[in-house]
Specification:
Chain B: Pathway: Isoprenoid biosynthesis; isopentenyl diphosphate biosynthesis via mevalonate pathway. The complex is a heterodimer of chains A (about 140) and B (about 400). Chain A has one domain (about 1-135): Glucose Oxidase, domain 1. Chain A contains two helices and eight strands, in the order ββββαβαβββ. Chain A has helices spanning about 65-75, 90-100, and strands at about 1-5, 10, 15-20, 55-60, 85, 105, 120-125, 130-135. The radius of gyration of chain A is 13 Å and the shape is globular. Chain A starts with a strand and ends with a strand. Chain B is an alpha/beta fold and about 400 residues long. Chain B folds into three domains: about 5-175, Aconitase, domain 3, CATH 3.30.499.10; about 180-275, Aconitase, Domain 2 (3-Layer(aba) Sandwich); about 285-390, Aconitase, domain 3 (2-Layer Sandwich), CATH 3.30.499.10. Helices cover about 40% and strands about 15% of the residues of chain B. Chain B has helices at about 5-10, 15-30, 50-65, 90-105, 135-145, 155-165, 195-205, 220-235, 245-255, 270-275, 295-305, 320, 325-335, 360-370, 380-390; strands at about 40, 45, 75, 165, 180-185, 210-215, 240, 265-270, 285, 310-315, 335-340, 355-360, 375. The chains are: A alpha/beta (about 140), B alpha/beta (about 400). The interface of A and B includes residues 66 and 89 of A.
Chain lengths: ~140, ~400
C-alpha cells in the first residue's frame, strides 16, 4: 500500500528516506552544521537531530541566502537530506536544492503537519509527487 | 511558466549539465515568484564574489560549473584589491582563495570588474531588462537609469548570465513599479551629496521595501546614487522615483498615475542635520558606492598639494580608476589610497578602526556592524578636511 500526495516539482530527481518534519522554518546558514548534518539552532524543534538522508519537511527557509551554499556543502559531505518538502518554496532552499541535486517539491495537497516522522517516503521532484510507503 | 522549445532543450540537458542546472534554477525561481515567462537580459552583475561570503563550498560549486556567460557580466566587490592586497594588510591565505574565486569566474567568462557601480562599466539604457545583485546598483539601475531588475542572489544572477534570460516578475513588470509612499523633504539650504545620503538613511527606514516617491528635490546623478544606496541599506528599497527627475516619474505623469492619495512623510532639515556630527575619527573612507569620475575629480581637487594626517581610503571600480591615472596619482600623492575591486563594507582592511568618517548614508548604515567601528557622517569636504587634520 502506498499513498500519493500531489505537490509541485521544484528540484528534479527522486529521493527516498524516512520523513522528518519540522514545524518551524529552517535557516541553513548557522542553523545546520554542514559537516554533520545536525540542526544546531538553539531552541529549534529539530535541535540536535540529524537531517542527513531524511525526507525533510519544513514550512520554508529563512536566514541568509548563503544558506544555499550550506545545502551544497551538506551534499559534498554526504550529510544532505535525501529530499525536501516545503509548504512554500523560497529562493534560498530552492536554489540550494538545485545546486546540491536534492529532489524538492512544495505546495503539497496534504499539509506537512499531517506527515508522520519515521515513515518512508519517495519524492519525485520532476513529477512533483510525494509517495508515502505505508507498510 | 512558458518555456520555448530552446528552453525545454536546455532543461532536458541537451546543452550540458551546467546549463541544465542554471535553467532549473531560473524555472524554480519563476515558480516561486509566479512568473509566466522569461525575459531576455542585456547584462548581469553577479553577487557571491568575496571569498569571505561564499566560503570553501561556494568556491567548490563555482569550480564545478562548465559554461560561458551569454551576456556582459561583472561581479560584486570582493574582499581586497586584487593586486595591492598586501598593502591593505590582507592575509596571504585569504588572498590566495580570493584569487581562486576570481579564476573560477574568469573561466565562466565573467568580466573581472568587482564593483557596486557596473553602470560606469557597461552601458545600460532605459527599459533594459538586467539581472543585477548589489543593492545600491539595483536601486540606481531601476531608478536613475530606468532599467528593470530585481535584486538577484549570487546563483540566480549567474544562472541569468549563463542562460541570458531571467523570470519575468517583480520589478520587471511595470505594474510593480508604482510609487507606494511619498516623501516631502523640507530643507531650504543647498543640498550636497551627503545630505542625500542622510535623507536616504532616514527615508529607507520609513519606506522598508516600498517604492518611494520624492517631491521637490533636484539631485544630480551622484546625489541620486547616494540617496538610493542609503535607502537600500537602511531599508530594502530597490526602486524610487523623484518628481520630474527620474525617468519613470515622467512616465507616471504622462500616464496620469495619481500619487496624491499616498501616505506622505515629511523629512525636515533639522532631522537631516541631526545625522551629522562633528567629532574626531581614526580614519576616513569615501566611495560607497564606488566613486564616479566626477567624484574622483572633486577629491583630487581637494587633496592637491596637501598631505593627509589620517588614513584616507577612496574606493572605485577598477575600470574607473584606471581610466583616470592622473586623478588617482594626485590623490595618492597626498598619502591617501585609492582601492579598486573592494569596498568599505566588505573589506577586512577596514575593521581595525574605532571610528570611521564617511560621506555616504549607505556606509553610515553598515559601518557599525560590518567594520565594528563607529560611523560619523560628513560631506566630502568635511571628510577630506578631517583626513588632512584641518
Amino acid at each position: 500500500m502506498s499513498i500519493t500526495i500531489q505537490a509541485r516539482g521544484i528540484s528534479a530527481g527522486i529521493g527516498t528516506g524516512a520523513v522528518l518534519v519540522s514545524s518551524e522554518p529552517i535557516s541553513f546558514l548557522s542553523g545546520v552544521n554542514p559537516d554533520t548534518g545536525v540542526v544546531i539552532e538553539s531552541g529549534h524543534p529539530l535541535e540536535g537531530q540529524s537531517i542527513a538522508g531524511k525526507v525533510l519537511a519544513f514550512p520554508y527557509g529563512k536566514g541568509s541566502t548563503v544558506g544555499s551554499y550550506v545545502i551544497y556543502a551538506l551534499m559534498r559531505n554526504n550529510m544532505a537530506p535525501s529530499a525536501i518538502i516545503n509548504t512554500e518554496a523560497e529562493p534560498i532552499i530552492a536554489v540550494g536544492a538545485i545546486l546540491a541535486e536534492i529532489p524538492m517539491v512544495d505546495r503539497p495537497d496534504t499539509p506537512i503537519g499531517d506527515l508522520i516522522d519515521g515513515v518512508s517516503a519517495s519524492i519525485d521532484g520532476s513529477l512533483g509527487t510525494i509517495i508515502i510507503n505505508d507498510e | 511558466m512558458y518555456l520555448d522549445s530552446d528552453d525545454e532543450k536546455v532543461l532536458a540537458g541537451e546543452y550540458g549539465e551546467t546549463r541544465r542546472k542554471m535553467m532549473e534554477i531560473l524555472v524554480a525561481l519563476g515558480k516561486v515568484f509566479g512568473a509566466e515567462k522569461f525575459v531576455p537580459i542585456t547584462s548581469a552583475q553577479v553577487a557571491g564574489a568575496s571569498y569571505k561570503t561564499i566560503g570553501k563550498w561556494g568556491l567548490e560549486w563555482l569550480r564545478s560549473l562548465d559554461a560561458r556567460v551569454a551576456v556582459p557580466s561583472v561581479l560584486n566587490p570582493i574582499g581586497m584589491p586584487r593586486e595591492r592586497w598586501q598593502e591593505m594588510g590582507i592575509p596571504s591565505d585569504f588572498a590566495e582563495k580570493q584569487h581562486a574565486v576570481l579564476d573560477a569566474y574568469r573561466r565562466l567568462g565573467v568580466k573581472l570588474e568587482c564593483t557596486c557601480t557596473p553602470y560606469y562599466i557597461n552601458r545600460t539604457s532605459y527599459g533594459d531588462h538586467i539581472a543585477w545583485s548589489e543593492s545600491s546598483a539595483v536601486c540606481y539601475a531601476n531608478s536613475v537609469i530606468g532599467a528593470r531588475t530585481n535584486r538577484e542572489g549570487g546563483p540566480s544572477a549567474l544562472a541569468a548570465a549563463i542562460i541570458g534570460k531571467t523570470p519575468y516578475y517583480g520589478l520587471h513588470l511595470w505594474e510593480n513599479r508604482m510609487p507606494q509612499v511619498a516623501f516631502r523633504v523640507e530643507a531650504d539650504e543647498t543640498l550636497h551629496a551627503s545630505h542625500y545620503g542622510a535623507i536616504g538613511y532616514l527615508a529607507g527606514k520609513e519606506a522598508g521595501n516600498r517604492v518611494p516617491f520624492f517631491y521637490g528635490l533636484r539631485p544630480n546623478r551622484d546625489q541620486l546614487k547616494a540617496l538610493g544606496a542609503a535607502m537600500a541599506a537602511s531599508g530594502a528599497v530597490a526602486l524610487y522615483h523623484v518628481e520630474d527627475i527620474t525617468p519613470d516619474s515622467r512616465v507616471l505623469q504622462e500616464r496620469g498615475i495619481d500619487i496624491s492619495a499616498l501616505e506622505t512623510i515629511t523629512i525636515t532639515g533639522d532631522e537631516i542635520e541631526a545625522i551629522f556630527e562633528e567629532r574626531t575619527v581614526d580614519a576616513v573612507a569615501i566611495g560607497c558606492p564606488h566613486c564616479s569620475e566626477e567624484e574622483l575629480e572633486e577629491i583630487a581637487g581637494l587633496l592637491k598639494g596637501k598631505t593627509v594626517t589620517k588614513p584616507l581610503y577612496i574606493f572605485a571600480a577598477r575600470g574607473v580608476a584606471q581610466a583616470h591615472p592622473n586623478l588617482v596619482g594626485t590623490i595618492e600623492m597626498s598619502g591617501a589610497k585609492v582601492w579598486e575591486d573592494t569596498c568599505i563594507v566588505v573589506s577586512p582592511g577596514m575593521d581595525h578602526f574605532g571610528s570611521i568618517m564617511v560621506n555616504s548614508g549607505k556606509a553610515f548604515a553598515y559601518v557599525p556592524n560590518m567594520c565594528g567601528a563607529e560611523a560619523v557622517l560628513g560631506s566630502t569636504e568635511e571628510c577630506i578636511a578631517a583626513a588632512l587634520g584641518e
